[in-house]
Design goal:
- Helices cover about 80% and strands about 0% of the residues.
- The termini are far apart.
- The chain is rod-shaped, with a radius of gyration of 65 Å.
């Protein structure tokens, strides 16, 4: 058996060190064979008990840390779940709002199309009435042109008739009119 050189008089072999930070399983620990010194055996049992207590404390602290981490993870998961539920609810509201807006827009489009069609129909009716009035005006214009042409022809005939009737009397009238202009001067 080798003893620890740092602690002379230490009956525990150098393989087992009580200051180790990690746990040593029972299969890995190498205990010295029972020896005639009973005090060394009690000391060995006491050190093993200390190692076990230390290991149990570490295990307890690790378990407490794990519980804290687990609790934080559960809280984070709950918060994330709540955010997901809130987001899903908001998405549902937005989808419903969008559907309502789409329905309203569709209704407005239908009304606008109906109004536009009504205005188109009115405009076509007005255009047809305007065409009819234009045709009527064209007919009246043609009738007026015919009457004007007839009136011109009648006027020309009257003028010719009047000239013929006044032609023999014209020279005496024109010389008399000429004389009266001289007299006035």
């Amino acid at each position: 058996m080798t003893t620890d050189h740092k602690h002379p008089g230490n009956p525990i072999p150098s393989v087992v060190r009580p200051s180790l930070p990690t746990l040593i399983g029972p299969s890995e620990a190498k205990f010295p064979e029972p020896d005639a010194h009973a005090a060394g055996g009690f000391e060995l049992i006491e050190r093993a008990a200390t190692l076990i207590r230390t290991s149990e404390e570490r295990a307890l602290r690790a378990e407490e840390r794990a519980e804290k981490v687990s609790a934080r993870a559960i809280e984070a998961m709950k918060a994330a779940q709540l955010r997901v539920e809130q987001t899903e609810a908001r998405v549902g509201q937005l989808e419903q709002h969008a559907a309502e807006q789409a329905k309203l827009a569709q209704e407005r489009i239908i009304k606008a199309e109906a109004l536009a069609q009504e205005r188109i129909d009115k405009a076509e009716a007005w255009a047809q009435e305007a065409e009819e009035r234009a045709r009527a005006a064209q007919s009246r214009l043609q009738a007026a042109e015919i009457r004007a042409s007839d009136a011109e022809e009648q006027l020309q005939r009257l003028n010719e008739t009047l000239r013929r009737k006044l032609s023999p009397a014209m020279p005496s009238v024109s010389s008399g009119a000429h004389r009266s202009t001289r007299n006035l001067n």
